[in-house]
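Support request, please re-run this one:
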Amino acid sequence: MTAAASALPATRLADVAGQARVSEATVSRVLNGKAGVADSTRQRVLAALDVLGYERPVRLRSRSAGLVGLVIPELTNPIFPAFAQVIEQSLTGYGYTPVLGTQMPGGATEDELVAQLVDRGVTGIIFLSGLHADLTAEPARYARLAARGVPYVLVNGYNERIAAPFVSPDDHAAARIAVRHLRELGHERIGLAVGPDRFVPVRRKAQGFAEELAEDGPGPASGVVRHTLFTVEGGHAAAGGLLDAGCTGIVCGSDLMALGVVRAARQRGLDVPRDVSVVGYDDSELNAFTDPPLTTVRQPVRAMSNAAVHTLLEEIRGNPVPHSEFVFQPELVVRGSTGQAPAHAGDRSRARNG
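Re-run finished. Output below.
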């Protein structure tokens, strides 16, 4: 073994191999500059070194291909760091240096973050759940960015007034999947707790929710919608009205909202899922460890993140990319927060609606 590979302990060599999804022998060949390794594989190994915090051997350190900005709303919701991690890892694998811009209460706005990124000379920007998803926001800001020659990709929230590539989960399908799951469990009165109506993902979820309730199913079903905030407190606030309306199954616009619904139900002395079933949305890695483990609709974070990066790099390279929406399908993950509808719930619901 040469000096470059021997400088990395065996345990760390195994860590890098696992992170890059290659053999330890391949990692050793990359570190020692041996031929016979595909460029994409070599980049994965180098990206793994960066992600794990290991220094690259001096001769493998190369000048960054450029800076790429990533603008996200916040870090308190676990779904945003999850996207950021995959996007940053992917960008690093292609030789780019990611620059994270986070909007915090009282901090920089999206426009201010973009101005800072442009001043730093970024070669492109990825926006995650930004103002593009807010139908009341002025879309001209993105046209001005394009006019400055800065390519960008927009994730979560299609807006037909903006000429750009979009990457989105199928929010419409996500709501239908969640409602179908609850109806199959016998729930007849189902609630939807979502964020403000001005956001595109919210409108799509509400539309899917209504359409699935209107479909022929295993039993009669009706629904109630409450708009609030995508937070634990927002879910707690929405739960009050939904539980008062007799809902025994509640679909939420985020996992944080779902945790708020669970908390509100328990404060009323209700058990989840014996009395109330709750479905989240996103699928944070923490969901398997909540009490109860949270049933949720999973966003395909890795697939969406990689698509956003690949699309942006095509734009940076000057290759035409369709200014349309790439839609990714969500997946229902059933855990412990949903169960059979409580006995006689249907009778109470029909009496309330009658």
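The first helix runs from residue 3 to 6. DSSP finds 13 helices and twelve strands in the chain.
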